[in-house]
TrEMBL record:
SUPFAM superfamilies recorded: ClpP/crotonase
Annotated keywords: Hydrolase
Domain Enoyl-CoA hydratase/isomerase: 17-349
InterPro entries: ClpP/crotonase-like_dom_sf, ECH_dom, HIBYL-CoA-H
GO molecular function, a single term: 3-hydroxyisobutyryl-CoA hydrolase activity
Pfam annotation, one family: ECH_2
GO biological process: L-valine catabolic process
Protein name in UniProt: Enoyl-CoA hydratase/carnithine racemase
């Protein structure tokens, strides 16, 4: 008996819209290199297809479409490849970041239905959308510091453009936010009830639209109000996460007398001390960068994370503790925020490539 191989990325053109469904529900649609390549091929083909006026993308869960958008990159593959020096890890990040860039600059409206979990790589394939749709089930985060990585896939670019110091807070803590906060923090454009998504998706296939803008306007017409819960913490976020260094942020939070500050400090104490310092520098550099330059910087950083700290990759250790051995006891090096020196942070921002030979040199 031959086993049927089901594609992890389903695509079809119905009516005037190109539809994409991420179809790896058991892994919460975590992106593999094959999925990145499939998405790139589909989007490049549709960019010049006159039949396609807009693109819609969704995830799936074990019950069917929607329910989970994308939980990030395939971190088990990253652990295996990073541990063994597999060159495919280089291809994964180069091609993923090129895909992120294409989505941000796509010639037609790209509409992301960000239902359920939207984290890491899932943010990379949705933040560049012309319309970012969240639901009451959305759980959004960039949790990379928990695995000794940094918020990549353009995270420096889109987090640094959140209001106030929300970008630093989300990048350093990896905290999860819902629909209302995602809209308030400019990481989503509107909220749709989860039980309306299927009808809207089907209407895109059957209705007639004058152009891509009309498709985008139709989806936006289905938005409802969403309650933001984190806005009460905004003043605290701006106060503490504007401080100059990670050490000062943590000391300030630990000296404060509020449950929010204590919980936030405790979260930061669990993250990779080194990567907290690297991430603060990343977000603040990215604030004055265009997307292409930010992605090139992040490509430099990821090479350092996996290959240029021999025998002591925070990322390989973080993934081991969280997803492989699951002991939740990463052995960070250095072990304390106070022990990280500027000399440890600076190398992450030195490019291993000359400008003309950078793997993302072609991004405009």
């Amino acid at each position: 008996m031959t086993e049927t191989v089901v594609s992890e990325v389903l695509s079809e053109v119905r009516g005037q819209v190109g539809f994409i469904t991420l179809n790896r529900p058991r892994a919460l649609n975590a992106l593999s290199l094959g999925m990145v390549r499939d998405l790139m091929g589909i989007l490049l083909a549709w960019q010049n297809d006159a039949r396609v006026l807009a693109v819609a993308i969704r995830g799936s869960n074990k019950e069917g479409p929607f329910g989970a958008f994308c939980a990030g990159g395939d971190i088990r593959f990253l652990h295996q490849a990073g541990s063994q020096g597999n060159p495919l890890i280089e291809d994964f990040f180069t091609e993923e970041y090129a895909l992120n860039h294409l989505i941000h600059n796509y010639a037609k409206p790209y509409i992301a239905f960000m239902d359920g979990i939207v984290m890491g790589g899932g943010m990379g394939i949705s933040q560049g959308a012309a319309l970012r749709v969240v639901t009451e089930r959305t759980k959004m985060a960039m949790p990379e510091t928990a695995i000794g990585l940094f918020p990549d896939v353009g995270g420096g670019y889109f987090l640094s453009r959140c209001p106030g110091r929300v970008g630093e807070w989300l990048a350093l803590t990896g905290d999860t936010i819902g629909a209302g906060d995602a809209i308030a923090y400019q990481l989503a454009d509107g909220c749709m009830p989860s039980d309306r998504q299927a009808a809207v998706w089907d209407a895109l296939a059957t209705q007639s639209f004058a152009d891509g803008a009309a498709i985008k306007a139709y989806v936006a017409s289905q938005f409802v109000a969403a309650q933001a819960s984190g806005s009460s913490a905004q003043a605290d976020i701006d106060q503490y996460f504007a401080l100059p260094t990670v050490g000062e942020i943590v000391r300030g939070l630990e000296a404060a007398d509020s449950d929010w500050a204590r919980a936030t400090a405790a979260t930061l104490r669990k993250r990779s001390p080194l990567m907290l310092h690297v991430v603060l520098e990343q977000i603040r550099r990215a604030r004055t960068m265009g997307l292409a330059d930010d992605l090139r910087m992040e490509r430099d950083m990821v090479r350092h994370c996996f290959f240029l700290r021999p025998g002591q990759s925070e990322t390989v250790e973080g993934i081991r503790a969280l997803a492989v051995d699951k002991d939740h006891a990463p052995r960070w090096n250095p072990g304390r925020i106070e022990d990280v020196t500027p000399d440890m942070v600076t190398p992450f921002f030195a490019s291993p490539w000359p400008v003309h030979a950078h793997p993302l040199a072609h991004l405009a």
